[in-house]
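I'm stuck. Please check this protein.
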Amino acid sequence: MISAVVFDCDGVLVDSEPIADEVWALVLAEAGYTMTPEDAVACLGTSEPTTYAYYAERADVLPYEEHMAAIDEIRVPVYEERLEAFPDAFDTVQSLAAQGIPMAVASSSRRPDLDSKLALTGLDRYFDAFVGGDEVEHGKPAPDVYLEAARRLGVPPADCVAIEDAEHGATAAVAAGMRAVMIKRDGSISPNHASVSELTSDLLTAWMWRF
């Protein structure tokens, strides 16, 4: 039986992806590149170094550290003003925590950025472990971040279910030996993984027993 839940952050717990896309588009525009919806989809769920490498192949961007500093200069105050947790995710996390179910966050975001998003939305208090993309060698779709999350929880990966919104992330979770459930709030269905349109604690505990 599954005994622990590992959540991705962006697009699963917090509604940060539209903000991030806006900010990347602004910074890329300064480099003369027009970001497309197809670019956003290609980078969904990948680490920031991977996203940077994707655009570095297509635009004359600043060196990585300078580029990310430009991103953060815009993104941080916007997060402070606009970032919110998804209501279904917040309620689910609260309920699972009250039941004593071990939970971790395994994100492609850099750890300081991850910590900030969870603190701003009040989600940080409910988790037992956190892993940022800069804390492991290989980003999603490699399994590293999920393996590290399981290690920090002290739970075998096979006893964890991962909640993801991106195929890259679900692939990473499965490669780590976890079950993966995708949250698809637009009502679409993943062709490769179990998917739901809304998170609820009852649904997740049902999935945990099913697995």
Q: What stands out?
A: Strands lie at 4-7, 103-106, 129-131, 160-164, 179-183, 194-196. The domain at 4-15+84-210 is CATH 3.40.50.1000 (Rossmann fold). The chain has a mean pLDDT of 93. The chain has two domains: 4-15+84-210, 17-82.
